[in-house]
Write a structure and sequence with these properties.
The complex is a heterodimer. Chain A is of the alpha+beta class. Helices cover 53% and strands 14% of the residues of chain A. Chain A has five helices and two strands. Chain A has a two-stranded antiparallel sheet with strand order 1-2. Chain A is globular. Chain B is rod-shaped. Chain B is mainly α. In chain B, 81% of the residues lie in helices and 0% in strands. The chains are: A alpha+beta, B mainly alpha.
């Protein structure tokens, strides 16, 4: 049966944030830097939009936040919760399934559309 | 300086019904993020003005940030997310407290009510005594 996949459209920022934080806790600026590094700057966005993503994940219980003063700067560090790890697994599986489908279409595994 | 930069964003988010706790967090984090971007730009040898411009550009348009926050219903207050339910609950709470208002009034004005009750009791006793006396004068034959 065909599955609907809303994460295909809306889950990519969540997937990347959870993946970045799966190794260690980080604050917003660090997350964006890590994201740019691992994606080879393939994804461009205004860096400020990371915060609504982080806050929404925290509100949903996937992340927990704690404030920490570092060298006179107030940092908000985020870490993945158990629920967040499950969500990361789910989003990763979903992304693999969708990207595999898109790759198949691009590679013409089922025949090119012109000949369909 | 940084707080002033994001003041219009703060007001827009609060006015749009975003949970105030998240608004304050967002402003704090944007301010820190801006400082990090500015420092990184200065380290590359840019002048102060150019570094500030680059930092703001990297952070993104404030309208886009506001739109990103407002697209997350979980960050909005309950009243903004469910205005009808909130209005119903508010009305129900108001109506629910109506029967309790006299009781709350009595508790709040207990000393005055005690004095008033005592005065009424004394007046009733006096009046009762007077009436009983008159009744005795009328009924008892001399």
């Amino acid at each position: 049966m065909a599955q609907t996949n809303p994460p295909f459209l809306t889950g990519v920022p969540e997937l990347l944030v959870l993946r970045m934080l799966s190794g260690r806790e980080m604050y917003g600026y660090e997350i964006v830097k890590a994201m740019r590094l691992v994606t080879g700057e393939a994804i461009g966005f205004g860096e400020g939009v990371i915060y609504p993503v982080l806050h929404a994940l925290e509100e949903g219980g996937a992340l927990k936040a704690r404030r920490k003063s570092v060298n006179g700067r107030e940092r908000v560090y985020y870490a993945v919760t158990t629920k967040g790890k499950r969500r990361l697994e789910h989003l990763s599986d979903e992304w693999k399934r969708v990207s595999s489908g898109v790759n198949s279409a691009l590679n013409g595994a089922n025949g090119s559309p012109e000949h369909a | 300086m940084r707080d002033e930069q994001f003041e219009s964003l703060r007001l827009e988010l609060l006015g749009s019904g975003v949970n105030p706790a998240y608004v304050e967090r967002t402003i704090l984090e944007l301010g820190e993020h801006y400082a990090d971007l500015e420092s990184a730009a200065l380290e590359t040898g840019l002048g102060a003005d150019e570094a500030a411009r680059v930092a703001l550009a990297s952070l993104g348009n404030q309208r886009a940030i506001a739109a990103a926050v407002l697209s997350r219903p979980e960050l909005l207050t309950f009243r903004t997310r469910h205005p009808r339910v909130a209005q119903y609950l508010h009305s129900a709470a108001t109506i629910g407290t109506l029967p309790g208002l006299p009781l709350m009034f009595c508790i709040e004005h207990r000393p005055e009510l005690t004095r008033w009750g005592a005065a009424i009791s004394v007046a009733a006793a006096l009046m009762g005594g007077v009436l009983a006396g008159l009744n005795w004068l009328i009924v008892v034959p001399f």
